[in-house]
Amino acid sequence: MEPTQVSITIKTAVIAFLMLVHIQFAAFLIGAWGLAVTAEFLGMLNLGHPHFDRFARSLARTTVIMYSSGAVLAISFLVVISLLFPVFWYTIMRITFWPLVMEGITFALTILYLFPWYYTWDLLSGFKPVHLSLGLAILVVAELQQGMIDVQAAYMLTSVPPGDLLRVFLNPGALPLDAHRLIGDLSFAGFVIAGYAAVRALRAQDQERRAYYDWMGNLGLLAGLGFLFLQPAVGLSFVEEIRANSPGAFDAMMRGRLSWMFIMLAGLFSLLFCLSVYYMLLQAGKSRHQGQRTLAAMLWVAVASSLLLIQPSTIGPSQRLLWINWVNPIGAMQPYKYIAFGGLTLAAMVALLYYTGIVKRGIYWGRMDMGGRRAQWVLATLAILTSVTMLTMGYVRENSRAPYLMYYRFRIEEPQQYPSPPGTPTPGTSLPSEQSGGGRGRGAAEGSAGR
Amino acid sequence: MGQHGENADRVSRRGFFERMVVAIGGAFTILIAVPLVGYLFAPFAVARQRQFVRVCSLNEIDSLTPKEFPVSFTRVDSYAPYQEIRGVFVIRRGAEVLAFSNVCTHMECSVRWIDWRQQILCPCHGGLYDRWGQLMGGPPAHSLPLYVTKIENGDLYVSDETVFRI
Amino acid sequence: MIGWLGNRLYNRLYGWLDARLGIGPLLDRVLRDPVPERGGWWYTLGAAIFLLVIVQIITGIFLMLYYVPSYEEARESVIYIQDQVLLGWAVRGIHYWNMVMLVLLIGVHMLRTFFSAAYKVPRELTWVLGTLLMVLMVATAFTGGILRWDQSGYFDAVVGIKIASWTPLIGPWLAWLWRGGEVIGPATLTRTFALHVWLLPAPLVVLAGIHIALVVIQGQYGSWINYQPEPASAPPPTEDEIESHQKLEREVLSPHSRKVNLPMRTTWFFPFHVFREAVVSLGLLTVVMIIVILFPVPVEEAINPATTDYAPTSMWFFLFLDQAFLLFPGAWLIPVGAVGVPTIGYLLLVLWPWLDRSRAIEPGKRLPAIFFILVIVGSIYALAFLAASRVYNYGFINAPPP
To answer: Per the CB < 8 Å rule, is B78 touching C162?
Structure first.
């Protein structure tokens, strides 16, 4: 029986779909754990706000429910990739063996800590420090789990010779990707929670629930923007590593075929900033002390920076001055790009500091007039935008690698056309494609994977 | 004594002594400061000497790959002469011979030619220059400065003076 | 018997000094300063820093007995100290690893001060002096690293001078001043040596003295997180204790010092708190000694500005700044990133007591400030780790990918 030939487009589409959905779950989970543990800690400090513990508990319940779905997607991905890209998967499993072992162990540990953490909430309510340390344990192992899978994900983009284990663990993209992802998780979870709270607030019937969801939305946005403004710096560290180690991928992203997506991404990003500051402005209108002038000024700064950032051509004498050209490289926008990001970051920092002061002095939670209703719609938009941003980022990163699956080491074409990666330790066995020679390599690989 | 109190323009005895203390203190400071400041800024006063040093012979210079040669300048602007070592990249560009410095224009680390990238790279912050030393990417401020060159008897000489290049 | 003799000796000495210097009340004030009976271990870091600075000065003086600050001989003299001088490796090792420990301790001490709100009224001046001390300490550490005059020391000097030269308006002047000429030469080494040995440590010691004096004058009370709570089983305070507590509030603490959070049970500074300080200092010094024995301080290759192999790395406490440089490319943004941002950050730090004017002391009541400092510290950590990973991988950057 002839093995089924699947075109590369379909293979990559399936993997991409699984991964992009899984990422939404996994990112939300890690961010939600971070926010839930923090909220529980703040509740323990007994600041006079009774909602923190209630919020943390409902968030924990959400993560417990979502955990299995996220895990199912991940495991399906594993099955599918070993069916569709067997030689590639086999190779990278051997190169990043120990990181994946650690990932498996931390995966088990996460489950081990997660269910007790949620189900002993009442039991340990008198022993909050113990309960909190359980939550902290989840954070540590979940972040380790993400770190280990990031070693593999970064290896595909910035690879190193596979012999030295330390070099594999510390491959150039691993730590920057991990930092970028961690901060992104917290921001993403914050915005999604804010969006959910906004929808609930709009649909709530009584004042108490409205106030609670309004407050929750505010909390989500503080986390969302609070972590978002750190992202450009960390993302830049990542792209610098890509430039140093995989120059072709860098060119594709910043100067070539994917640069239009990057401009789109910059636009989404600026929109997130501007809408967040706008939300803060609207909420400040509901406060007892109306201090909106600073926030309005920050909104102007954010909008100005965004216009500087998402313009499709460089400022300056150029025949493309008014010509909308999506391929025009974002990589050439020096130093305006940095000034724009600096402006956005500054606006976000000042707005956040000012807004937290206003929140401390008191806001009429739950009021839908005075711009309150519009604020909730802003939050809902933010949640959707942040999801789209993350999807786009993932797509850009994975596509910049083409035509490699492991940069410099492994191409995406049919197995019989790529060489065995040099330097890979082969203890005794040889690759199936080598055993059967050129033509039947793929069939043999599929057969052995199916068995 | 009463007269001193009526006439507001005249300085009292105490006021006179206060002002004298300030004036003498100022004179003291200036007296000390002048030699000290001059001493501190002595390097500005040393005359600069220009010298030409041999880099390599002309037939070692390629037009595709910049080669780096160490050159050593003898400097006498301190208590004893010392050897200042610098690296010089040399490459042909069309008819002319370019010699440029190996000092990055960002934080002055020493750059190097990376063959597989066909670019000059700075190992501190990843600044990139092309084979003629022109800025291609990264944090540096401008291209690698050119050396003033002289060709004599088929050998290339560089002066210790560099020319700024955008 | 010995205790009785020692006591008599102490009394005679005390009487002799008191008759001539009148220090009786001062000694009483310092040695019998009230400190909380339970807890307060986090308050020992300042004394630990002070003692380790003294160790640093002494080892530095001993290193000066062999070190030669000359362009050709500096590195040779360092190698001589490391290899030939009896226990030279130990003295040099202590000097180096003690520096690492000191910079870490300063960071922890500053964080502790922040968390216990010990920069608020009336302690603003103490905080300002502390930030000045931090800058002096870091500058001393930086100039000390240059004195090795090997590849790493040379490039530290190069980069440091270049950063100074990026200062707007006065930059090239500052660079010339430090360099002592058009290029780095013997004058640079001599000036760096003068900076490291005298020009920076002298103000450091003087300001440290004023800093400590201020702490003694104003008392050491902070927020509740620093003291262990009274156990539930502890007996309630007696009439005497309440009365002496009130007397303390009236007489010892001036109207200007903070009276809130005064623990009920207090004891003498000497010997109870000094004991805690001694334990912590000894522990930290032991850690330093162990590391000195396990990890010798290297001496790199001789200076070669024409190198194609050596990848300069900044000193570990500047790694976060190194990573931040990536965010400011180009001739217009480099001064902003290399000079502007650190200066503004430092000014924020110095002026913090005037930016945070709230009267709250407990961390739970000053959440914005707490979150702000956590974000700053977290960012510094993250940037430092990213820089370390980048520097590690730049070590392999010459090699072609297979």
So the answer is: no
Q: Residue B10 belongs to what domain range?
A: 2-45
CA atoms within 13 A on the CB side of C335: 10
At B95 the three-state DSSP class reads coil
Has residue C256 been placed in a domain? yes
The DSSP bridge partners found for residue C170 are none
Q: Are residues C212 and C320 in the same domain?
A: no
pLDDT in tens, B111-137: 999 998 899 999 999 999 999 999 888
d(CA A38, CA A125): 16
Measured CA to CA in angstroms, residue A395 lies from A16, A72, A229 at distances of: 8, 21, 21
Return averaged pLDDT per consecutive 10 residues of chain B, 166 residues in all. 55 90 95 88 71 89 92 83 91 92 94 92 92 89 92 90 86
Q: How far is CA B57 from CA A197, B93, C56, C305, in A?
A: 75, 16, 52, 22
Residues B35 and B78 reside in one and the same domain: no
State the nearest Cα–Cα gap between C367 and chain A, in angstroms: 9
What span, in angstroms and rounded, lies between the C-alpha atoms of C28 and C39?
23
Q: Which of C312, C342, C375 is the last residue of a domain?
A: C312
CA A417/CA A408 separation, integer angstroms = 14
* Residues C341, C205 share a domain: no
Of C312, C329, C346, the residue that ends a domain is C312
| Chain C environment of A408 (Cβ under 8 Å) | 401-402
Find residue B135's DSSP bridge partners.
B129
Chains that touch C (3 or more CB pairs under 8 A): A, B
Cβ atoms within 10 Å, residue C70: 18
Question: Of C331, C383, C390, C347, which Cα lies nearest the Cα of A232?
Answer: C383
> Within this chain, do residues B68 and B138 fall inside the same structural domain, yes or no?
yes
- The CB density around residue A136, as the number of other CB atoms within 10 Å, is 15
Residue C298: cis peptide before it, omega within 30 degrees of 0 = no
Query: For chain B, how many structural domains are there in total?
Result: 2
Q: Are residues C289 and C324 in the same domain?
A: no
Instruction: Tell me the residues of chain A between 332 and 361 that have a Cβ less than 8 Å away from chain C.
Output: 334-335, 338-339, 353, 356-357, 360
Q: Is the dihedral of CA A124, A129, A134, A135 positive or negative?
A: positive
pLDDT of residue A420: 45
Q: Is A396 helix (H, G, I), strand (E, B) or coil?
A: helix
* Statement to judge: residues C270 and C334 lie in one domain: no
Compute φ and ψ for A140, nearest 5 degrees: -65, -50
| Residues C258 and C348 occupy one common structural domain | no
Residue B57 and residue B38 share a domain: no
Alpha-carbon radius of gyration of chain C: 25
Q: How many domains does chain C have?
A: 2
Q: b vs e for A333-366, b when ≥16 Cβ sit within 10 Å of the residue's Cβ?
A: bbbbbbbbbbbbbebbbbbbebbbebbeeebebb
What predicted TM-score, i.e. pTM, was given to this entire model? 0.87
Domain-located, residue C230: no
Task: Specify the pLDDT at position C226.
Answer: 55
Read off the tokens for A51.
């909602």
- Taking contacts as CB-CB distances below 8 angstroms, the residues of chain A near C392 are 170
What is the domain extent for residue C203?
Answer: 32-221+241-312
- Could C402 and A409 be called an inter-chain contact, meaning their C-beta atoms sit closer than 8 Å? yes
Q: Are residues B78 and B105 in the same domain?
A: yes
C-beta of residue C303 within 8 angstroms of C-beta of residue C155: no
Identity (one letter) of the amino acid at C111?
L
Question: C-alpha angle B43/B45/B49, rounded to 5°?
Answer: 85
B79 and B151 fall within a common domain: yes
| Set of chain C residues whose Cβ sits within 8 Å of the Cβ of B44 | 176
pLDDT tens-digit series, residues C157-215: 999 999 999 999 999 989 988 988 888 989 899 999 999 999 999 999 999 999 999 88
